[in-house]
Automatic annotation (TrEMBL):
It holds the Pfam family FAA_hydrolase. One of its GO terms (molecular function) is hydrolase activity. Coiled coil: none annotated. Keywords: Hydrolase, Metal-binding. InterPro entries: Fumarylacetoacetase-like_C, Fumarylacetoacetase_C_sf. The keyword Metal-binding applies. Residues 27-225 form the Fumarylacetoacetase-like C-terminal domain. It comes from Devosia honganensis. This is Fumarylacetoacetate hydrolase family protein. It comes from the Bacteria. PANTHER family: ACYLPYRUVASE (PTHR11820), FLUTATHIONE S-TRANSFERASE (PTHR11820:SF90).
Length: 227
């Protein structure tokens, strides 16, 4: 075995309903996958899907606090359906995509919106706006074998008990199979990959000590507090 110059970082593990853990490899995110959110951000909802990434260690476990990140005055929430990939594949057809899914969870794509706006204006990457520490709280993963493959159902996010975001999975512009098929043309998907599938309208700023509670009907919940 090769000698390491320092200890390897621990794996990122998300609890799975029933007691096991899902090891995270990569985290892909779909931009603007709900028409109403695309419009509220000033974009055309008919555009094809595009993707950005967060590092695996941006994932935080459901219920734990996250720190208000530095270098921003506009931290915003985005509630999303998370797809957990359980089988490898590339150039996957939409008709075969569901067979590559291990399960689903609710997640939050936390965003430094002011940095994102600056990056958009300058034509620069969104990495510092989206991929910062603790930017991806994710709830317990539920096996697809238990809940099936949700195509519709309420998706909501409340801050301090008041609902901010409310939509339906049926409102996604690109379905989960279409998203997997499109993404797998560009990269080989592997077991352990996560795909965050976009957020409905109603995104907004959060402050320190705010309590965030997200829920997706038939899938699960995710919660955190801004430390």
């Amino acid at each position: 075995m090769a000698e390491l110059v320092f200890p390897a970082p621990p794996p990122v593990l998300i609890p799975v309903k029933g007691g096991s853990f899902f090891p995270v490899r990569r985290l892909y995110c779909v931009g603007r996958n709900y028409a109403d959110h695309a419009r509220e951000m000033g974009n055309d909802p008919r555009d094809p899907p595009f993707f950005f990434a967060k590092p695996a260690d941006a994932v935080t476990i459901d219920g734990g606090p996250i720190a208000y990140p530095p270098c921003t005055d506009d931290l915003q929430h985005e509630i999303e359906l998370v797809v957990a990939i359980g089988a490898d594949g590339s150039d996957i057809g939409a008709g075969e995509a569901l067979s590559h899914i291990f399960g689903y969870a609710a997640g939050l794509d936390m965003t430094r919106r002011d940095l994102q706006a600056e990056a958009k204006k300058a034509g620069r990457p969104w990495t510092m706006a989206k991929g910062f520490d603790q930017s991806a709280p994710i709830g317990v993963i539920v096996r697809a074998g238990e809940i099936g493959h949700p195509e519709r159902g309420a998706i909501t996010l409340a801050v301090n008990g008041g609902v901010r975001q409310r939509g339906d999975l049926a409102d996604q512009i690109w379905s989960v199979p279409e998203t997997i098929a499109f993404l797998s043309r560009f990269v080989a998907l592997r077991a352990g990959d996560l795909i965050m599938t976009g957020t409905p309208s109603g995104v907004g700023a959060v402050r320190r000590r705010d309590v965030l509670e997200g829920a997706i009907e038939g899938v699960g919940t995710v919660s955190t507090v801004i430390a």
